[in-house]
Amino acid sequence: MGKNLTKRAEDYSKWYNELVVKADLAENSGVRGCMVIKPYGFAIWEKMQAQLDKMFKETGHENAYFPLFIPKSYLSKEASHVAGFAKECAVVTHYRLKNAEDGSGIIVDPDAKLEEELIVRPTSETIIWDTYRRWIQSYRDLPLLINQWANVVRWEMRTRLFLRTAEFLWQEGHTAHATEKEAIAEAEQMMNIYAEFAEEHMAMPVIKGIKTESERFAGAVETYCIEALMQDGKALQAGTSHFLGQNFAKAFDVKFATKEGSQEYVWATSWGASTRLMGALVMTHSDDNGLVLPPKLAPIQVVIVPIYKGEEQLDAISDRVAPLVKELRSKGISVKFDNRDTHKPGFKFNEYELKGVPVRLAIGQRDMDNGTYEVARRDTLEKETVNADDVVAKIEFLMEDIQRNIFQKALDHRKTHITEVNSYDEFKEVLENKGGFVSAFWDGTLETEEKIKDETKATIRCIPIDAKDEVGSCLVTGKPATKRVLFAKAY
Amino acid sequence: MGKNLTKRAEDYSKWYNELVVKADLAENSGVRGCMVIKPYGFAIWEKMQAQLDKMFKETGHENAYFPLFIPKSYLSKEASHVAGFAKECAVVTHYRLKNAEDGSGIIVDPDAKLEEELIVRPTSETIIWDTYRRWIQSYRDLPLLINQWANVVRWEMRTRLFLRTAEFLWQEGHTAHATEKEAIAEAEQMMNIYAEFAEEHMAMPVIKGIKTESERFAGAVETYCIEALMQDGKALQAGTSHFLGQNFAKAFDVKFATKEGSQEYVWATSWGASTRLMGALVMTHSDDNGLVLPPKLAPIQVVIVPIYKGEEQLDAISDRVAPLVKELRSKGISVKFDNRDTHKPGFKFNEYELKGVPVRLAIGQRDMDNGTYEVARRDTLEKETVNADDVVAKIEFLMEDIQRNIFQKALDHRKTHITEVNSYDEFKEVLENKGGFVSAFWDGTLETEEKIKDETKATIRCIPIDAKDEVGSCLVTGKPATKRVLFAKAY
C-alpha cells in the first residue's frame, strides 16, 4: 500500500514503533525518555479521557488537583512505597539558574539549593494522604472519592512510545472509606469500570484478576488489574486498582471519628490508567496497513474523498456532499471532507488507512451520475457501492459493526491464545512457539514465581477473578495448588 | 451570616485568602508555594477549560502534549527568554534516591546525576520550537495551530492561592505561520477570544491592550493582554497573547520552503491563560457573604433546600421536587437537591451563599400548601415567593439575569475607576485615595515608567487597543505624548 510500514510478521516491535510515528500519534522528544503526543494521538487520548471521566463522575467521583512535587520525607513515610519508587524518580534540588561568572553560559546557581529535595510525583498517594489528614475528621467526611488527571514521572531506563516513557499522562483515583469492606468494594468497582471501558470503548477484551504479592503496587494490600493480550502474544496490563488497607492512613496519621465516637484509621484505594492504553489500542487492532481504530475512539469516524478533475467537478461533488456531512454531524458522527487540492486521492486513501479512519467514502463522476458512494471499511478493507439514499444508514450500521467486529476479532485471538498446560515442559513449549496466556497451577510461592520468570521471562499476569477452585499440582514443584493462574510474557 | 469571613472593607487581602479556603476552592499544600485545588474549585476550572477549549477548537486549534522537562541548553537558546525565566525555575539534577549507607534514611543518590540538568517547564516555547523544527518543512505545513493544557512551575518567592503559585495549571497556545501578518492576526485573535471568554463567561469586563516593552513576555516582539479590575481597585492581567516574530524560529532554526521555493524563518505566536483566572473570578464578583459565581461557570446552578420535620414531610417534599429537578436537568441546568439530614436549613443556606450558588430554592410546609417555592438569588440576596408553575421560567430568567447583572455591576465599578489625570500630583492622589486605572500621557521611555513604578508602585497595565491619538504631554517629564496609557497597581 505504499506506506513503507514494516510488516508485523517481520518485526512486530519495529512495526509498532514505526506505526506510532507514521500515524502521527507520538514521537520521541529531545528529552530522554519523554515523548511528544502529537495532535492526532492526543485527540484519541482526549476521547479516552472524556469517556473515563464520565464513568468516574457517574460513580460519584470528583476531580481535584494536587502538587507535582513531593517532598522526599513524604515519599519516605510508607516503607514499601518508597522502596518501589526510589530507584526511578526525578529529583529537584535547586530553584534557580544564573550566568556563569566565567561567561561560559547558564549554570545552576549553587546558592539556590532547596533545603529538602522534591521528587517529581511518580504517583500521588503520599502528597494526597498528607492532604486527606486535613480533610477527614469524621465519618461524615467519608467516603472521599477523588480523581486527578495528571502527568507523572518514572525514570525508566528503556523507554518506548506510550508503553514505557519517563513522563506519562494518567488519571489516579484516591479514595478514603470508613470500612475495609467499602474500600474493597470500591477497588473492585474501579477494576470493573476499567474493564468496561476497555471492552466497550477500546474494543479490547481483558481478563480481570488480582496480582500476586510480587507484582502488587508498592504499598498495596491487594492489586486488582485488567490484562489484555496483544497480537504478538504478549500481555499488557491496562489498568490497576489497589486496595491499600490502612497503610497510607497509618503513615500519614489519618483517623476519623466513627458514628460511635471512637477514632479509627481510614481505609484507602487508589487506581490508575495511563497513556499506555494508547499503546494497547494500537497493538490490539492495527494491521500491516496502519492503525485500525474503534469508531467510539476515532477522532475522525468518516472521511469523504472526492475524486475529481478541475474545480467545476469539485464544486459539484461538494454540493452533493454538503448535506450528507451536515446530516452525519447532526447524528454525532465526526466527518472530514478532504477537499485538499495538494494531494491526490490515492495519497489520501493511504493516509486515512494509515490513520485508521473507520469508514472512507469516495465519490467520483460515476458516483455522481449513478447517485452512489463508494464505501470502504477500515477493519476488513471491504469496499462496496452504496446508494446515496442508503449511505447514512450504512454508516450508522458500520459504526456499530466495526466496533463489534474488531472486538470479536481480538476476543477470538485471545481465546485461541489461552492455553492450559499441566507440565513445565509443555509450559515452556507453548510460551516459546505460540505465546499468549498460559494457564497453569502454581504453588503460591514467590520462589517458584521467580524461578519461572528467570527461566522463561514469563510472569504471573493475574489470578483471574473467575478462576474456579480446582485440585491440581504446581507445574514446577508438584506441590498441591487450588487455582490456575495466568502466565505470559508481558509489556 | 455566621460565616466568620473577614469583611472586604476591613482587609481585602485577608477576605480573599479566607474565602478561597472556606468556599472549598483551594488550599496551601505541604509543598512550598504549591496549592491543592479542591473539588469545588476544580469543578469551576473544568468549566473554564471546557469553554476555552471549545473556543480554541472552533478557531482551528488542536491539542497536543509536550515534555514537562526542558534541557537547560534549550532554555538558553533564546537570550531574552532565559533571562526572563532563569531566576525562578525548578531544576532536576538527579534521577534516583537510595538508602543512606549510615542508615539515616533516604538520600539522593550522588551516582545518579544527570549529564544535563532539566528545567521543569516555566512555559514551553523552547521545547515546542525544538519539536516544530521536525514538523515544519514547507508552506504546506503551515499554519500550525497547537494548544497544550499543562502544569508549569515558576519558583515564586511570595505566593498566594491562584494568584501566584509555584506550580499552576494553564493552557499555552503555540502557533507557527508563513507570514508576519498572519501571526499578528493570530495573536490579536487570541486576545479577542480571551476577552470574549472573560466578559461572556466570567462576567468580568476587561480592557484589551498591548504591553510596554518592559512588561512584555521574555522573547516576544509584542504582547497583547486583557486587564481586569478587582474590587479593591487593583488590576489583574487575565490573559496574554504574544507575537514572537521569528525569535524562536531563529533560535531553533525552524525554516520553511515558501511556495516560490525560498527558505524562510517561521513566524510565531504564543498565548496563555491560567488558574489565575480563578483568583480573578473570586475577586471580581464575590462579597462579604462569600462567593458570587456567574451561572455559566457555577458547578451547581440551582440548589433546592427542603425545610421539614420528620421523614414523612421530607418524602412529600421530595415527591414535589423530583419532576422539577428532572425538568431543569433536561434544560441543561445543574441542580442539587440537598436532602442531607445531618445539617439544618440555616446551615445549608449559609453554605450555598458561601459557595456562590446562583439560585437557591427553599420549600417548606407553607410552600407545599400554597404550591410555591421561595426563590433567592445570590447576587442581590433578594428573595421572593414563586408559583410552582412559574418556577422553571423564573430560574431560566435568573440564569441570564444574574450573569448580566454581575457583569454590569463589575462594568459600572470599572467605569467609575478609570480616571483621566493630567498631572503627576493628581496621578498620585487618585492612586492613593481611589485606586483603579489611571489614564495618563506617558513619554514612552523606560526611564519614566520605572520612576513612576518606584515612586507609586503603579505599572503601565497596557496601551489600550482603542486608545485615541491625542496631543498631550507626559505627566512626569512634560515631553510630548500621543496616547493615554493605563496605569494601576496590580496583582
TrEMBL record, chains A, B:
Belongs to the class-II aminoacyl-tRNA synthetase family. ProS type 3 subfamily. It holds the Pfam family ProRS-C_1. Consists of three domains: the N-terminal catalytic domain, the anticodon-binding domain and the C-terminal extension. Catalyzes the attachment of proline to tRNA(Pro) in a two-step reaction: proline is first activated by ATP to form Pro-AMP and then transferred to the acceptor end of tRNA(Pro). InterPro entries: aa-tRNA-synt_IIb, aa-tRNA-synth_II, aa-tRNA-synth_II/BPL/LPL, Anticodon-bd, Anticodon-bd_dom_sf, Pro-tRNA-ligase_IIa_arc-type, Pro-tRNA_ligase_II_C, Pro-tRNA_synth_II. Keywords: Aminoacyl-tRNA synthetase, ATP-binding, Cytoplasm, Ligase, Nucleotide-binding, Protein biosynthesis. GO terms for molecular function: proline-tRNA ligase activity. Its EC number is 6.1.1.15. This is Proline--tRNA ligase. It catalyses: tRNA(Pro) + L-proline + ATP = L-prolyl-tRNA(Pro) + AMP + diphosphate. It comes from Sediminicola luteus.
